[in-house]
Design goal:
single chain, 12-stranded antiparallel sheet, 15 strands
Length: about 325
């Protein structure tokens, strides 16, 4: 083997090693949509592609009100069919009773969600437009708020109803450095390592904010023994494995909350006994049956199995559209 051949082999080997390292780092990195989100109190992420791939035969066409169907027809985008990913940043408002409500949202949506029809709709409904870093930001009035919408890629849309332009500008700025695999907000860098691999949906930070009422988290009418500013890491795997982990202020608080959650779980199991037999009720019963609560140091972990019947009749809800995000 001559010197030139050896040098070529070394170059090829080095390139292959670098490529393998890059692929490995990418596999550990948060999804690009999540990396584009601005600084926030909580982050939610949904990957709808596995749901459509595995459960499309069981999906029922969604029941839509006429106004929403007209909106879909006007923009030429069907979220149930065209939306692949959604990353949502939650921003706590200083005055929960103010004109902007308790929580604002910034979203990055990925899929077949751009086009001339959408641009025409945005142009006709925008109260104003802004040019920022080569992008057109549309400001749409909605229910006392301003929703800002901008196309940041051929398959990527950013939406924010934060009171100022700060968050939508941040998303555009982050898009320039999106190739960096571990870029992203402080919250994402701090807690994404705790999200199980291959989770199709997950949340980190103060993700109880949307369910908050007077500082308490309420779901299905039940007030959970958690504060809305609790740090939570939640995930749902494509096999239906649900995991929710809370980082409590202290070990003593974690012990109390684990006991309270165990009591609520026992009560919920009793409440579901009289429910009739159907797919949704059976799925709920199985969820409660498989639920387990553990506590270690300052962390409380809830695990369960989510039956496919609880995924709903469609893969994607209509709320992840510019109109739904306006509220």
């Amino acid at each position: 083997m001559n010197k030139h051949t050896r040098r070529t082999l070394w170059v090829v080997a080095a390139v292959l090693i670098l490529l393998a390292v890059a692929i490995f780092l990418r596999s550990k990195a948060p999804p690009e949509a999540a990396r584009l989100l601005p600084e926030s109190d909580g982050i939610l992420y949904f990957n709808f592609k596995p749901v459509r791939a595995f459960f499309h035969k069981d999906m029922k066409p969604p029941q839509r009100v006429p106004e929403y169907q007209q909106f879909i027809n006007a923009i030429g985008i069907d979220p149930e069919r065209d939306l692949d990913e959604a990353a949502i940043a939650l921003h706590r408002m200083q005055d929960p009773k103010g004109p902007n409500g308790p929580v604002a949202y910034s979203m990055v949506l990925v899929g077949k969600i751009t086009g001339k029809q959408l641009n025409a709709w945005l142009g006709s409904h925008a109260a104003s437009r802004e040019s920022y870093a080569g992008h057109t930001v549309y400001s749409i009035p909605s229910e006392g708020r301003t929703v800002r919408v901008v196309q940041i890629g051929y398959d990527m849309l950013a939406v924010s109803n934060f009171p100022t332009t700060e968050m939508i500008h941040s998303i555009i700025d982050r898009h320039r450095s999106a190739a960096l695999p571990f870029a992203g907000s402080t919250l994402l860098r701090r807690h994404y390592r705790d999200v199980p691999l291959l989770s199709q949906a997950w949340g980190v930070g103060q993700i109880g904010l949307p369910f908050s009422e007077s500082g308490a988290i309420k779901i299905l009418g039940l007030s959970l023994p958690l504060e809305d500013n609790s740090t939570i890491i939640a995930s749902l795997g494509w096999t239906g494995s649900l995991r929710i982990e809370e980082i409590a202020p202290s070990e003593e608080v974690a012990i109390r909350q684990a006991a309270a959650l165990a009591t609520m779980l026992t009560l919920a199991r009793g409440f579901t006994v009289p429910l009739g037999d159907n797919a949704a009720n059976d799925g709920l019963k199985e969820l409660l049956k498989t639920a387990a609560i553990t506590q270690k140091r300052d962390r409380v972990v809830v695990t369960a199995t989510v039956e496919h019947s609880l995924y709903g009749g469609s893969a994607v809800g209509g709320a992840a559209t510019p109109s739904g995000a306006a509220r």
